[in-house]
Specification:
Length: 534
Amino acid sequence: MRKLLIVFMVLVVSAFTFAGGSPAEESTSATDEEFVLGETPLTFSFFDVSDVFAGHDYGVDYQGEAWIKENLLVDMELIGSGGAAEQKFSTMIIDGDLPDRLSINRNQLPQLVEAGLVVPLDDYLEGSYFLESMGTGAIDMLRSEDGKLYQYPQWMITRESGNGNGGWLIQKSIHDALGNPPVETFDQLYDYLNLVSREYPDMIPLAVTQNFTGGYVIFTGFAEDMLYDYIASFKAIPEGDELTSIFKSDVFEEALLYTARLFREGLIDPDSFTINRSQDLERLPDVAVVASNNIAMRGRETRGVLQQEDPSNDWIPIWPIRKEGLDPDRVFPNSYNTLGGRINVISSSAENPEGVFRFMDWLFSPYGALVNWFGPPGLYWEDGDFTPEGYPVNFSEDWFSDPADVIRFVGTNRTGIGNTALVDGMSEYFYSIDPSFVNWTKNTQITVAWQTSKDRTEFTNVIPATDSDEGIIFQEIEDIFDEMYSRAMFASSDAEVLSILADADSEADDAGFDQLLDYMTEIWQRDKERLEDL
């Protein structure tokens, strides 16, 4: 079964402004007046169907969580996956023992709706921050076939600029030692990797990181407006008003041949298909160039090792490498969905579904996001004046002077909620005050990653439900693609790569890819029309 790549994020809800007063006083827009967030105790269980997420005791390690537990009277039982999230989820369904709240992929929802295992959220929308910030048009795009709303998306974006963490890194000391040659095009990258190979034979010239995600980043540089999701998620590329097979794409073929050549010539880490996360991070300090869907995380977690040997060394984020002749401002290794990525649902076994919804909404509201991500009021920021965007004017200098202390208390997504506009916007706010206030990760995002990200909201619903006819075909296409891609990397020549690609194209046709593409195109065109009306 397909291994789900999880970015742990989630729901939200509760009309909460910065007009002053306590959170409980400002979160009373429940349809049932008996429940008031902050007055009525709320305890519920939460499971993220992800092998990334681990269970823990809520409200123990982070001051924001502790404040929520004490002031809002909310306690969560956070259930870990034990490294087998999908299997655990299946067992929960079979046993009829679902937790109160779940974080899942969007295409897993139809099965839960059909089985009556999740609660519609429509009765709780009035007065919610969700409705206020996203609007009815966006929410209508999230409704299920029965017309009801069951999902509360993770990391929705209520601002004009997007987000993302992918792209390219180059190791500063190696680049300096080699004379800082330009590495802007794929021809220049090829020459640079060969130079590294000659001058530093013990180094890995290019790492594409765990699960070969860097290969997909390479793909985005072979045509303008070519999204990472076309290869990583959809296996389809728009041509005019239709989605077409990636196996028939000239752009994909060219990118595949280039990437396979690098791999064949020993310029890419040969273990890229088999390494786990810890092995990936362990070897990165011995890498000259990195291509990844998450350079922000990988750079943050390994730059300290670089600087142990040379304090002046670092990872330098570079503008996306591209094919000669392309507009550098139209190459996008990152994309974003204003309606979020994964989704949260409330199970029908929840004793207080409205309470769960209200708490999620509060976490998504500006005030809730501040508490969850930047600590409780009085620690690094004070209640009172806020900018029009919702950022506190009175932000303590301690935030900027003691980053090691700050990271222990804030930036936790263990609540399963993220407000992209607030969290990313806050970073840009700090950066505008003084770039030195922003750490390496945020600087990388602000100066490169977020500027090379493209809106993909129109593709929100194109991946079919897992148990539908198209969903079954989709899974088969993914399996065909994965096998083709790995075989192509180990091919002995360009001719063999093309033969492998042709075989995969034929297999995809036999699997019914045309039927799937027709379905995806229909959904895509429908949602494009909906977006035009927002």
